[in-house]
Amino acid sequence: QVQLVESGGGLVQAGGSLRLSCTVSERTFTNYATGWFRQAPGKEREFVAGIRWSGDTTYYADSVRGRFTVSRDVDKNTMILQMNSLKPEDSAVYYCAASVGIVAGRLSTPDYWGQGAQVTVSS
């Protein structure tokens, strides 16, 4: 059973930075692609960033490329989403996720989800 637990998030002013962490269960990184999705009120959940199981390739939505960085520490079973130059439109609940693969430059429909972490960016 794969478990993912997010931490971090919070409230920040536009232009600021936040860091989200996701602690995953053992062997998740070697068996799954992992990444982040987000969902704003009234909108569909959307892909944000991901990393292949091999760790050698990362993927980003166009809306966050150049501002967000996804990384992982295999020894600590932790995935990080560093978010810089935040905008009000980045406000959402952010979910870490594990998926069997990458399709068209994004995680395929995840098999496992974390509980979500709120990110609010004020203007």
Largest sheet: 7 strands, mixed
- Helix/strand/pairing class, anyone? mainly beta
Topology order in helix (H) and strand (E) letters:
EEEHEEEEEEEEEE
Give the number of DSSP strands: 13
Quick summary:
This protein is mainly beta. Helix content is 3%, strand content 52%. It has one helix spanning 28-31; strands at residues 4-8, 10-13, 18-24, 33-39, 46-51, 58-60, 68-73, 78-83, 92-99, 102-103, 106-107, 112-113, 117-122.
Task: Describe how the helices and strands are arranged.
Layout: E1 4-8, E2 10-13, E3 18-24, H1 28-31, E4 33-39, E5 46-51, E6 58-60, E7 68-73, E8 78-83, E9 92-99, E10 102-103, E11 106-107, E12 112-113, E13 117-122
Parallel strand pairs: 2-13
Antiparallel strand pairs: 1-3, 3-8, 4-5, 4-9, 5-6, 7-8, 9-12, 9-13, 10-11
